[in-house]
Write a structure and sequence with these properties.
The chain is α/β, with parallel strands linked by helices. It is built from 12 helices and 12 strands. It has a 7-stranded mixed β-sheet, sandwiched between helices. The relative contact order is 0.17. The model has no long low-confidence stretch (mean pLDDT 94).
Length: 361
């Protein structure tokens, strides 16, 4: 009897666990577990989404020309170097599918985004985990881990879930030091939260071995539509488009994302509010004896004295209808990742943690 089995590596993938969205018995829930924009999408994006309904009987654009043009215009990029996907996750998956096979290695850091390992295993490759230096990417450690089998190196900058980042000089040193067959992939899901940061776009244009990925799920508030994009040398874009499904993004997703990226005033408001409440939240938690590294994203990685303390705080927050994220799966068992919400949400989470501390005293 023939046994039907999946490709090697598939069964080594743990099922992805998203952030919780409800608490049984609690109606007034504040969700701070998935790094979503608390203000939601731009009103212009919502209007575009609603208007798109009239054309749902038509197939969407296959080349995503209008969205690529909008992205290129807003970020001063080359439209022909842009590819769009179902979230930046799909771009990551394309890269692994196109460049990884049995025996090939993909480097990611110990606290790096889970999709790097998942997409590597799905393509039959071998994930290679490299230690970070106090929750920051260690370029020397990555370069030391490279071999003649290294094909991709993933770093998120800023990183999730640590919220830390490394500067352009270090990223450039990494790109220059990679073996000739390897690509550096800069995951810029949170790049918009860093003022005057291009996410690595200039480095993509200067080199042949760098790819940048971005998303509409964070700053632009379109997590529910799943839209992302990548920026790469034209030769790599040509490869990725050969495996991209012709209708991978719906008309609604394309038109809503185009309106969102063009609404730069709304993005500027979200950036300013995030910066203000991120600083306040970090300061208030620090007063309670809960430190965090300087965050360059829309969340804070709160560090507790022990795993038991972190879990107890999380349980208390849930009882109060506040959802944050445990990150033991990212080898940070003493930490909780807390999304920076709007003002009332940030004030509510601090008040709850103060109450938790008082109850535990």
């Amino acid at each position: 009897m023939t046994r039907i089995t999946p490709q090697p590596g598939i069964m080594d993938i743990a099922l992805y666990q998203g952030g919780a969205s409800h608490v049984d018995g609690v109606v007034d829930v504040v969700k701070l577990s998935s790094n979503e924009n608390p203000f939601g999408p731009s009103p212009k994006a919502i209007a575009a989404c609603q208007a798109s309904a009239a054309g749902l009987h038509r197939y969407p654009s296959t080349d995503h020309s209008a969205l690529r043009g909008a992205i290129a215009g807003v970020y001063a990029l080359d439209k022909e170097r842009i590819i769009c996907g179902v979230g930046s996750d799909e771009i990551i998956h394309f890269l692994c599918q196109a460049y990884i096979g049995q025996g090939d290695e993909v480097i990611h850091t110990e606290h790096g985004f889970a999709m790097y390992r998942i997409s590597t295993l799905a393509a039959g490759g071998t994930p290679v985990e490299v230690a970070e230096d106090t929750r920051r990417v260690d370029v020397d450690a990555i370069l030391a881990a490279c071999t003649d089998r290294t094909k991709l190196v993933f770093i998120a900058n800023p990183n999730n879930p640590t919220a830390t980042m490394v500067g352009l000089e270090e990223v450039t040193r990494l790109a220059e030091g990679l073996p000739p067959q390897a690509l550096l992939v800069l995951d810029g899901a949170y790049a918009e939260y860093v003022p005057d940061y291009d996410g690595g776009a200039a480095l993509v244009e200067a080199r042949e071995n760098v790819v940048m990925t971005r998303t509409f799920s964070k700053m632009h508030g379109l997590g529910g539509l799943r839209v992302g994009w990548g920026y790469a040398p034209k030769a790599i874009i040509e490869v990725l488009n050969r495996i991209r499904g012709p209708f991978n993004l719906s008309t609604t997703a394309l038109e809503t994302a185009e309106a969102a990226v063009r609404d730069t005033d709304y993005a500027a408001m979200c950036l300013a509010e995030n910066a203000k409440w991120r600083e306040w939240l970090a300061s208030e938690l620090d007063k309670l004896g809960i430190p965090s590294d300087k965050s360059e994203a829309n969340f804070i990685l709160a560090r507790f004295a022990s795993e038991a303390d972190a879990n107890a705080c999380d349980d208390y927050l849930k009882s109060q209808g506040i959802l944050v994220r445990r990150v033991a799966g990212y080898k940070l068992p003493k930490c909780l990742r807390i999304t920076v919400g709007d003002g009332p949400s940030c004030q509510r989470v601090v008040a709850a943690i103060k109450a938790f501390r008082q109850d535990a005293a």
